[in-house]
Amino acid sequence: MVTFRSAAAEEAEALTGLVMRSKASWGYDAAFLDACAPQLLIRAEDVTPRRIVVAEDERGGVLGVASLEGPAPTATLGLLFVEPAVIGQGVGRLLYRETLRRAVRLGVRRLVIDADPHASGFYRAMGAVARDAGPGPGLGPGPGDAAVAELVRFEVEPVPLPAWAREWTGGARAVHLGNVAEFNAQFMDEDRDEDLDGDRHAPAHHYACLAAFYTPAPAALVLPSVVPRGWVERVGRRLEWEGVEVYDGLVERGAGLLDAVRDRPALLSRLTEAGLPWVAWGSTSALGRVTGRRQEAGRLRYEAKSAAHELFARILAGGGHPGIVLPAQWRVGGRWAAARRVAARARAGLAGVVKTEHGVGGSGTAIVTPDRARTRGGIRAALRGLPRGPLLVEEYVEGPGPGGGPRDLTYDGFVGRDGRVHEVGGAVMEVRDGAYAGATVGPSVVPAWAERPLTAFGAAVGRELAAAGYRGWFDVDFVADREGRLAPTETNLRLTGPSLAFMVAARLDELRGAGHLVRIVDRAGLGARLAEAQFDELCADLVRGCAELGAVFVPAIPTAAFAPAPWFGFLVAARDAETLDAAEALVRAAARSMGHAFD
Asked: Which of 530, 559, 577, 578 has the most CB within a 10 Å radius?
């Protein structure tokens, strides 16, 4: 175990020796090292002003040294050297992360690193951003070169975990419960189609893997299906988790994850004895039975689309939300009543949206335009995939034209146990034919014209939910219209894909510096059904390929790679939109090409 402490003045000579041994490990000759020595010297009187920190092992042996120099808000990483015997064992990474944490506490908002060219790969892997740099002392590119050579400059914006992320779990690590099927079962229609393996809850068990990302750094994952250990380890390396316990394979079929936990007293005791908070996909009566916090009747009523529509209308009736417009909505008895309503709109040249009261990721939603009705054999045929029973018909919102900006946006926040509403932020979603396909979060993702109305209305919804007794995560989905207004369409009283992207962005910003864009991709089709070892090899290749682009790849849903119709979910992160798009394209292309290995 590596620990950290501030250096003492009497260690100056010994630490200088460590620095020189580490520098020599790059193969520099004696003449070059002698020329570097004045710049690498640590003087006793400089130990405190240079804020020198030491990494040591459990026996007190010194493993590495770093310095954080200069006043806030701009500082310099003056030294970062590791004993040659432990290079490659992660000490440098841990020392670098500790230096970033100390920089945050000191109020440093810009950290400059003028790196030896040999170390540039390390700093890129740590997430530092390369900048231009000129000549500098003592850091030549190769043995025998002069002591003045080109440096590689990097910059980092150290930031703490955002306030909302600390408030989400009270600053503690949490137990993550993958109860997606259990939550969905509260609203599931009895005639909904089953998965290919005959289990109507099987898709939700795949999505339960997203429990890995309910907070920036979990303590334990509790999952219905067995997940690959290689996946857990790979995600843990990317997000630098420590000591995550995994309890999987608890539910072979069906939706009863929390009942399965309750039926295992030893497991229940293990999960509760540390006193850590539990975070679930969403609230259920089974969760209430296990935690002792009963779910109040009607607490999730705004999960219903008609109830959410009524809530939106009530908020707008109070005024104060310019830039928000509410589409008209009608309740109808079933598919044929919906068809008649949509046909009436089609005769007027208007499109309509038909929805079920509850749906996940756009399931149970059909967009019917006159052209679509003709190509699908009529309006009734276009609605044939919807379940029987009451439906909603909604006015279709014509979105911006090509190049007019994003169409689908969402606001994320949560209501704390004390009833306070915490804003997380806005995201841009990818929606295909009414079905959610992914989302992107990060700086400037939401266009400037949409940011104020989106956050103001989302916060107003949060206050209404709090007043109704709801506690937990929520989002509000919007569609942008041609006039640059936002139309709210539904609320989700649970965690969502965008919420998980926010968690990963918060973690990466904390580890690597501010500015990450994160995209979560719901499904990427695989060209072949994979064995576990093949999927792990694919992920290893994608980690390397994305890193070469300057991006981070995180596999998010692995278990569907082994399903009869294989796919997987993933996240990619980068600091600019072009790199993010390139990383997504790389992952999708690699996934599709998997079938070629079997040609």
From this structure: 559
The mean pLDDT of 211-223, rounded to a whole number, is 97
Q: 111-123, pLDDT tens digit by residue?
A: 999 999 999 999 9
Question: Token digits for 306?
Answer: 């008609």
Strands (E) across 356-501 are located at: 365-368, 391-395, 408-415, 421-432, 435-441, 472-480, 486-492
At 19, list the tokens. 């620095």
* pTM tops 0.90: yes
Q: pLDDT higher for 403 or 468? A: 468
Cα–Cα distance measured from residue 433 to residue 262, given in angstroms and rounded to the nearest whole number: 40
CA dihedral 268, 273, 274, 275 (to 10 degrees): 90
Q: In whole angstroms, what is the distance from residue 66 CA to residue 79 CA?
A: 5
What distance separates the 2 farthest-apart alpha carbons in the chain? 88
| DSSP string of 246-310, one letter each residue | EE----SSSS-HHHHHHT-HHHHHHHHTT---EEESS--HHHHHHHS-PPPTTTTGGGSHHHHHH
In the DSSP assignment, the letter for residue 90 is T
Task: Please report the DSSP string for 170-206 in residue order.
Answer: TTS--EEE--HHHHHHTT--TTPPPPTTS-TTHHHHH
Q: What is the DSSP letter of 398?
A: P
Q: Are 359 and 365 in contact (CB under 8 A)?
A: yes
Strand order in the sheet with 391-395: 329-332, 391-395, 352-355, 365-368
pLDDT at position 88 is 92
**Residue 9: CB partners within 8 Å, gap ≥ 6?**
44, 45, 47, 48
Q: Is the pLDDT of residue 147 over 50?
A: no
Tens digit of each residue's pLDDT (9 = 90 or more) over 89-99? 999 999 999 99
Q: Residue 387 phi/psi, 5° resolution?
A: -70, 165
Query: Do residues 551 and 526 lie in contact, with contact meaning Cβ atoms separated by under 8 Å?
Result: no
- When pLDDT is averaged across residues 269-281 and rounded to a whole number, the result is 94
